[in-house]
Design brief:
Elements (H helix, E strand, L loop, with lengths): L1 H5 L3 H66 L2 H11 L6 H18 L3 E8 L2 E4 L15 H9 L3 E7 L8 E7 L9 E7 H10 L7 E5 L16 E4 L2 E4 L7 E7 L7 E7 H4 L4 H44 L14 H41 L2 H16 L3 H19 L5 E3 H18 L4 E7 L8 E3 L4 H11 L7 E10 L2 E8 L6 H9 L1 H5 L4 H14 L4 E7 L3 E9 L4
Parallel strand pairs: 12-14
Antiparallel strand pairs: 1-2, 1-5, 3-4, 4-5, 6-10, 7-8, 9-10, 11-13, 14-15, 15-17, 16-17
Helix pairs in contact: 2-4, 2-8, 3-4, 8-9, 9-16, 10-11, 10-12, 11-12, 12-13
Length: 573
């Protein structure tokens, strides 16, 4: 895609830019209007849904309160009191008389609250219920699930949708289980309400256009289960969350019932239905964008005639410059962008000569830096100390140590010269610095010890610039361990990170202020006076070869030590 764009003509790019700008402007304007309108419509829908669900909650709470009050009325009736008295006296002879007397009371409860489907009073004397309902005697209340739930709750409770186990109709009901306050423990009252009646109440108050209204429990399951479950919820921080579909596609309104803690009434509305009326705005925006594109094509053609003229002139001058005619210059009576480009073109031609001179100067500085680098690595002071140590060890008949030092010095020179090549391998560079450290350990016995760690052995084969590690360890020995007689540690660690080679050289020497080091490296006058010359030389050489990808950082604390970190890109040649 990008390659195809690069091949387009300037005229086509201008036309494309006009189209993009106009489409962007129209899209932002239309999109903003659509977004604002959708927010207003959605806000109104949420408000309407919340009002409807609060209204439904009030109705459900009121109907459930009526049922509870009806049961309380039953408890205060004479026939119920007579039943409790007989049960307490273990007089069960009046059961059928009391059952007959209960029928008007049951009828009155259903008259007061039509949602009531059936009422069951469980007593040691026997069960009392409407004789018009067929009692399922195989399921006594005391051994049922509702009795277990009531015992666990230790209070009156509403039980969500379930199949009625006490009557032969086995209808889907919601139950209220109550235990009257009497001197008899085993008296319970169960009021069953048809799920369908509950749903009818909810549908009657459901806001227009809403998909569904659901009553759910704390675990997210529905209280009413008489219809197929279209939605699945879970409660998070007392807030219902849809799990069966993308919740962002729906508007949820919810509220908790007062008479049943944990029951939450939720209404669901599809946002696509709410925003359907905004489709007209969308099509108007598309039509306006199409018209603007046509206008952009016409206007861009007119502009190109004027814009391309100075551009063609500038292109002609560039072709002459390609033929080494560096005396050409762009001239224009205007002060537009093309004139600015022409001025930059003129400046570019003027700077070509100076750039050539700069390249020659950089090459000379590079060669000079290489010579000085080699001189810095093989300092007369180091050679003097090494040869002097070899002499005295020879006088002391330490032939083995003399032989080791001569081999180390020979190996060090061999690796430093590297056959005249500027590049070596990391393994050779580490070997070179190790030979230097061995020689210095022989010259300064017990002054320091060293550690060299390479994260991956394969890194030893990586090509690197030669002679950049030895000055760092020399700096640690001559400056870091100055006035120290023993206990010095030099640690060299090499690892790979993000395509770069990271090398750290640290010591536990006397250290210095890291800010002072940076000032000496950045000030050539201080370097020429011998302060930080080796470090500045390394930094300069690395940047010459590797560019800005190479870096040198310092961490130094007085009397604690110094850590120098070098970063160079891998894959150099």
């Amino acid at each position: 895609m990008l390659a195809a764009y690069y091949k387009l003509s300037f005229q086509t790019k201008i036309q494309a830019a006009f189209i993009v700008l106009i489409v962007l402007a129209v899209s932002l304007t239309g999109g903003g209007a659509y977004w604002l309108a959708s927010n207003i419509v959605q806000s109104n829908a949420e408000k309407s849904g919340q009002e409807a669900i609060l209204r439904t909650k009030q109705v459900l709470d009121e109907r459930m309160r009526h049922i509870a009050i009806s049961v309380m009325t039953l408890m205060f009736s004479d026939v119920f009191k007579d039943t409790v008295r007989d049960v307490s006296l273990y007089d069960y002879s009046n059961y059928y008389k009391l059952l007959s007397s209960m029928q008007p009371v049951f009828a009155q409860i259903k008259l007061n609250e039509p949602l009531t489907q059936s009422v069951l009073i469980s007593t040691p004397m026997g069960d009392f219920y409407e004789t018009g309902n067929t009692r399922n005697v195989a399921v006594p209340f005391l051994d049922s699930e509702l009795h277990r739930l009531h015992t666990e709750a230790k209070t009156d409770l509403w039980v969500g949708g379930h199949v009625d186990p006490y009557f032969a109709s086995h209808q889907q009901v919601i139950s209220l289980v109550m235990k009257p306050i009497t001197n008899v423990d085993q008296i319970y009252i169960v009021v069953n309400v048809l799920e369908s009646s509950f749903k009818d109440v909810m549908r009657a108050n459901q806001a227009e256009g809403y998909d569904d209204m659901i009553l759910i429990q704390p675990d997210g399951s529905e209280v009413l289960q008489s219809s197929p479950r279209l939605w699945k919820f879970q409660m998070e921080n007392n807030k219902p969350m849809l799990t069966t579909s993308n919740e962002s596609d729906y508007i949820l309104s919810y509220t908790d019932l007062n008479l049943k803690e944990g029951w939450t009434l939720v209404s669901v509305q599809s946002k696509s239905k709410v925003l359907q009326q905004l489709n007209r705005i969308k099509w108007i925006m598309i039509s306006v964008a199409a018209g603007c594109i046509l206008v952009a094509l016409l206007v861009s053609r007119m502009l190109m005639t004027f814009l391309m003229k100075p551009l063609h002139h500038l292109r002609t001058l560039m072709k002459r410059a390609e033929s080494n005619d560096l005396k050409v210059r762009f001239a224009s009576p205007y002060s537009d962008e093309f004139s600015l480009v022409g001025e930059r073109f003129n400046r570019m031609l003027e700077q070509i000569s100076s750039l050539n001179e700069m390249n020659e100067r950089i090459y000379k500085e590079k060669s000079k830096a290489e010579v000085k680098a080699l001189q810095a690595q093989i300092s007369p002071h180091f050679l003097y100390n090494t040869l002097n140590t070899i002499y005295w060890k020879n006088k002391m008949k330490q032939s083995q140590k003399v032989g080791d030092m001569v081999l180390s010095l020979s190996r060090m020179f061999q690796l430093g010269l590297n056959g005249g090549n500027e590049m070596t391998t990391l393994g050779n560079e580490l070997t070179h610095v190790e030979q230097y450290l061995l020689l210095q350990q022989s010259s300064y016995e017990n002054l320091f010890r060293y550690e060299i760690a390479v994260e991956e052995e394969s890194l030893r084969l990586e090509p690197v610039l030669k002679l950049w590690l030895q000055p760092l360890v020399e700096n640690s020995i001559l400056h870091g361990f100055k006035n120290r007689r023993e206990g010095g540690i030099i640690r060299i660690a090499v690892r790979k990170q993000d395509g770069c080679l990271i090398c750290t050289v640290g010591d536990n020497g006397r250290g210095m202020d890291a800010r002072t080091i940076k000032q000496r490296l950045s000030d050539p006058r201080l370097a020429e006076n011998g302060h930080g010359y080796a470090l500045r030389n390394i930094d300069h050489r690395l940047k010459l070869y590797y560019g800005e990808q190479a870096s040198m950082t310092f961490e130094s604390v007085p009397d604690e030590g110094t850590v120098i970190t070098l970063q160079i890109p891998l894959g150099g040649d």
